[in-house]
Specification:
The chain is of the alpha+beta class and about 170 residues long. It is about 35% helix and about 40% strand. The chain has a single domain (about 5-165), classed as Nuclear Transport Factor 2, Chain: A, CATH 3.10.450.50.
Length: about 170
């Protein structure tokens, strides 16, 4: 029996492939951050990207993002690979156009250098992101990290940020 896909099913499969590519970008973000591979990490952002990282500041453009990520890696991770592990989970992605998308993922930031009886979790938060397809690759265009614990720092109203973008 031959099974033909409908036009709607083909469209849905294309969307799923795009969503999977975006999730791969986010997984690479955490992997490269934790490995201290800052040059490669910066390439996951568009040239005009914006990062809003609470106490770490707001960074504009790939060059500033690269510079500041390197400083965070040096100052907070001692430039040691996998000194921290950014576990990003529950990644929701929604396409907003053929080359644009929004997403949210949860962050559990763990420090691996803690004694076994110490508290390894240092940050709980969420990433709200917009993505743009550039030269056939999905890149991060805007990354907002909302810190939820141990200190609450929200860039915008956390519950409304993506909903408002979704309704545009």
């Amino acid at each position: 029996m031959t099974y033909e896909l409908t036009a709607d099913e083909v469209h849905h499969l294309r969307d799923l492939l795009a969503e999977d590519a975006i999730r791969k970008t986010k997984v690479l973000y955490s992997q490269l951050m934790d490995a201290g591979r800052i040059e490669e990490l910066a390439e996951l952002f568009t040239e005009d990207a914006v990062c809003v990282f609470g106490r770490f500041g707001e960074w504009h453009g790939r060059i500033e993002i690269r510079t500041n990520l390197a400083a965070v890696d040096r100052d907070h991770h001692q430039s040691l690979p996998f000194h921290a592990m950014h576990a990003t989970t529950d990644h929701w992605v929604e396409l907003t156009g053929p080359d644009t998308a929004i997403g949210r993922s949860y962050l559990i930031d763990l420090i691996t250098g803690q004694p076994s009886d110490g508290q390894p979790i240092v940050i709980l938060g969420t990433y709200d992101e917009t993505y743009r397809k550039v030269n056939n690759s999905w890149l991060i265009e805007r990354c907002v990290l909302h810190f939820l614990w141990p200190e609450r720092q929200l860039a915008d109203d956390l519950t409304e940020t993506l909903i408002a973008k979704h309704e545009e």
